[in-house]
């Protein structure tokens, strides 16, 4: 564990990563933390907050860039360890490292731009009755943030992932609880951040990394009075537990939990008439990518019954049967996937359409495609449960009105997808209002599994997709999660933060008396 | 009650407003609503949401302005009824009406500007590997909002107050639960909104007004699946109950509860050396304004012991003794105030410094000033409890370090105030980081009771001042509370909302590939 500038071997218990391709432990062991370790990390983070949030924008951007540099400097050792611990292939992890580094650099740009500060000035109007005071608003960080690393992105949504990068960008110190599936990867990345803290001359409490159990380190972290927000990516059960713990604190705090989503795809009639087989084959590529272990995996397909759906299903089935069972991330995830598939297979009105190749290793996930009809889907709540992995359910509809019924029926989702042609636009217009209410991102003629890290991305959505639909956990707007506004009234010039001073020394975009200006 | 375009006399029970100056009921009676009435209002709101959120910015702005016009057209009847029901004087209520109307017009401007949409576009990069899709983000309303009217601003934070105005501005239908202390005022204002809905040709479900009990209408409202957010101003007990109810829903929703605050004022030594008596007298004016019934009432004064504090206390005491006991808003508020003052008087280490004139009417609030020392304050948690009304506590410190201790000790607040001169800046710099962490607004050499409705105002702060420190309930930024982002990926041009179309038909400020532009 990395607590401030120190390294500790935790004394609570020993933890081994498991190689999911063999099911065997990987050396060395890691020591998990105690309640006292957690308290130390949180207290250091609290001590770091005042100085860290007043770093200049340039200092903070350089710190984020230094983390990126340090991660790249680990070299192939990082990829190798992540491959061992996650079972993910080299190319995928190299891509994910690029995404992680790119994400840190994007937030460095966001910090330099300074628009996230929402600097806003209202001039004094001393002659008005009553006089208007001088008012100036900026945003500051919420305070220390607890980040829970995700299993399915051991780099891009773990120790230096999107939650950490956006929290550090906002001026918040971070205490990470590493995911127990990849402690070695977590340690390597944690050291890269720890070294960047030192290089940039920041307070050591800006970053700590803990190993530990949910009921010791996790609960202590969320309950600690110094922690002011939580970032989490994982199961609905885990996310809801964090939401409850945070709501029951003496001082409730925001939780940004990205949880479960089945990402419905609506295949509109004319699009199917013009390419059912092509869409079917491409759908299987999206479904099985990374053993289906994406939050945005397409787990629900809505289409009209008939010949085009038969063609889609046949093409999908053929493509699926050719797919090798990829190693899943952990034995636990593999077991949950197997159980979820069994439950679907046993559900009345659900029929197995096709399976991928039989697994050989202990954690191989055999891809699976089911089909049911809209009446069964609408009447069977369990069919909405996410099966994390390469499993999807086709819902066959009698008429286009059932598309709308399904759209209105499903709970909050990260994404919804429409396959359409110009002839389908009228039907799409009927669906879009419902989809806007239900999801964070609407796609046309693509697959939801690619999540671009950019300015206009929303990786979020209404509950249970996330705990807080007002936010995104991917992309530039993720920084907004960890900010709150503070207003300064009649503050003398030399006590004002630079972002709010007369003459705009930082050259920021600011709203002045209601108008957006940069001058 | 006004449910959509209809008016109902509720059948649950009968409710009379009480004239607090006499303690007698005011005719006519109002009928409170049932669970079924609440359900009808929420369902109508849900039905209105799709069309209301797609009104043009101009339509929505005109609707807000029409509400303002209709409120003014009620004329003196509104002021008269509000005076009867609240005990507040005519000038105050006329000022509050101006604030209410000004608030609606400010949000009309905010809507026309369209910056709240956060329109953001990332161009497709088809040549990149992997290709980047076309991504466009805008914000939409969360859905129907439940607003609980406040007792202490029967116009500006009630039926057409800040919560309603900002929710309507964001594109969310509103269901208001009227405060039972001013049903007649609520009905008059509700009819003004209902008429504006009709004039503007909007879906009747955009606005409903319910009378009712917290355990029937209030709980049903917060638990209703169509309601997607809550706005509330009132007691900590009431706000915390709403937070818990919202967190326990099948789909948890955000609650914006503005609750309790004691608004510490730090009187720095040189400011006191240069004007202790003047600050003391002015402080009493702020403390007793509106019978002290402001969220931002200065309930805690921190100063150094010694001659300057004696001078301050004497001046404050003299000013206080001249203050007539003003009629408080309701018998319940008056009783709670009396009890709070008694508890303070009975607290060990707390001394009564001065009282205002003895009350004559049944709800007269006799202003009260207490003093204690920092050691007692730090050791006695109950001294942090808000006594809603014209009651304040001076905390006398031995040394300047105790100022910082008090600042670190207090819970979240709406405001903190510093009285200072240039000679106090060094001490102020020590205090400011702690105050930023604790409060939503920091003032210098003024009193917190004036809350400007403008762009840079923050009327918010960490728990227990509010349920959500990321927001303000007063000022232009209040609109952000009721919005969430949606991203549109590769959506054909004729399915895109106008705010995101090529060529920027609305002339909005937009972020394009990371740069803020208006073209």
List the helices and strands and how they pair.
The structure is a homodimer of 519-residue chains.
Chain A: E1 2-3, E2 6-7, E3 14-19, E4 24-31, H1 35-53, H2 57-74, H3 76-86, H4 90-113, E5 120-122, E6 135-141, E7 145-148, H5 162-170, E8 174-177, H6 183-199, E9 207-210, H7 214-223, E10 229-233, H8 236-247, E11 255-258, E12 264-267, H9 269-273, H10 276-288, E13 300-304, H11 307-321, E14 326-327, H12 331-345, E15 351-355, E16 364-365, E17 368-373, H13 374-379, E18 391-397, H14 400-409, E19 413-419, H15 425-438, E20 439-444, E21 483-489, E22 509-512, E23 515-518
Parallel strand pairs in A: 5-22, 7-8, 7-10, 8-9, 10-11, 12-13, 12-19, 13-18, 17-18, 19-20
Antiparallel strand pairs in A: 1-2, 3-4, 5-6, 6-21, 14-16, 15-17, 22-23
Helix pairs in contact in A: 1-7, 2-4, 2-6, 3-4, 3-6, 4-5, 10-11, 14-15
Description:
The structure is a homodimer of 519-residue chains. Chain A has helices at 35-53, 57-74, 76-86, 90-113, 162-170, 183-199, 214-223, 236-247, 269-273, 276-288, 307-321, 331-345, 374-379, 400-409, 425-438, and strands spanning 2-3, 6-7, 14-19, 24-31, 120-122, 135-141, 145-148, 174-177, 207-210, 229-233, 255-258, 264-267, 300-304, 326-327, 351-355, 364-365, 368-373, 391-397, 413-419, 439-444, 483-489, 509-512, 515-518. Chain A is an alpha/beta fold and 519 residues long. In chain A, strands 15-17-18-13-12-19-20 form a 7-stranded mixed sheet, with helices on both faces. In chain A, strands 21-6-5-22-23 form a 5-stranded mixed sheet, with no helix packed on it. In chain A, helix 6 links the parallel strand 8 (174-177) and strand 9. Chain A is globular. Chains A and B meet through strand 5, strand 6, helix 8, helix 15 and strand 20 of A and strand 5, strand 6, helix 8, helix 15 and strand 20 of B. Strand 21 of chain A pairs parallel with strand 20 of chain B, so a sheet runs across the interface.
């Amino acid at each position: 564990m990395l607590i401030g500038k120190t390294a500790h071997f935790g004394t609570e218990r020993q933890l081994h990563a498991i190689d999911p391709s063999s099911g065997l432990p990987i050396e060395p062991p890691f020591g998990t933390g105690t309640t006292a370790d957690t308290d130390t990390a949180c207290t250091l983070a609290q001590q770091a907050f005042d100085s860290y949030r007043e770093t200049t924008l340039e200092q903070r951007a350089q710190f984020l860039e230094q983390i990126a540099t340090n991660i790249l400097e680990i070299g192939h050792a990082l990829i190798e360890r992540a491959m061992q611990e996650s079972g993910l292939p080299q190319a995928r992890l190299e891509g994910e490292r690029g995404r992680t580094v790119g994400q840190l650099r994007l937030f460095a740009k966001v910090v330099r731009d300074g628009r996230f500060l929402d600097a806003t000035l209202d001039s004094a109007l001393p002659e008005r009755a009553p006089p208007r005071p001088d008012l100036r608003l900026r945003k500051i960080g919420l305070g220390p943030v607890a980040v829970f690393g995700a299993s399915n992105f051991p780099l891009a949504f773990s120790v230096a992932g999107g939650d950490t990068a956006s929290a550090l960008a906002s001026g918040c110190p971070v205490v990470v609880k590493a995911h127990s599936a990849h402690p070695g990867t977590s340690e390597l990345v944690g050291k890269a951040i720890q070294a960047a803290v030192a290089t940039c001359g920041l307070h050591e409490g800006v970053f700590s990394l803990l190993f530990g159990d949910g009921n010791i380190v996790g609960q202590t972290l969320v309950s600690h009075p110094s922690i002011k927000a939580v970032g989490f990516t994982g199961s609905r059960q885990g996310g809801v537990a964090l939401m409850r713990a945070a709501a029951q604190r003496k001082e409730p705090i925001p939780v940004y939990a990205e949880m479960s989503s089945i990402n419905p795809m609506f295949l509109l009639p004319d699009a199917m008439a013009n390419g059912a087989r092509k869409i079917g084959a491409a759908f299987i590529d999206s479904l099985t990518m990374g053993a289906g272990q994406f939050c945005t995996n397409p787990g629900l397909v809505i289409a009209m019954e008939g010949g085009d759906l038969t063609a889609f299903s046949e093409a999908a089935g053929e493509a699926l049967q050719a797919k090798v069972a990829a190693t899943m991330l952990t034995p636990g995830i593999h077991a949950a996937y197997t159980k979820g598939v069994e439950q679907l297979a046993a559900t009345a009105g659900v029929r197995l359409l096709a399976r991928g190749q039989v697994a050989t290793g202990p954690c191989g996930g055999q891809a699976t495609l089911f089909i049911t009809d809209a009446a069964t889907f609408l009447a069977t709540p369990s069919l909405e449960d996410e099966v994390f992995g390469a499993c999807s359910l086709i819902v066959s509809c009698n008429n286009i009105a059932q598309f709308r019924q399904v759209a209105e029926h499903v709970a909050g989702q990260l994404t919804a997808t429409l396959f359409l042609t110009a002839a389908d636009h009228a039907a799409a217009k009927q669906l879009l209002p419902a989809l806007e209410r239900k999801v964070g991102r609407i796609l046309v003629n693509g697959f939801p599994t690619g999540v671009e890290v950019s300015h206009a991305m929303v990786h979020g959505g209404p509950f249970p997709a996330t705990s807080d639909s007002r936010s995104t956990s991917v992309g530039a707007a993720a920084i907004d999660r960890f900010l709150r506004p503070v207003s300064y009234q009649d503050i003398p010039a030399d006590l004002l933060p630079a972002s709010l001073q007369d003459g705009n020394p930082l050259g920021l975009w600011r709203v002045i008396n209601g108008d957006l200006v940069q001058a």
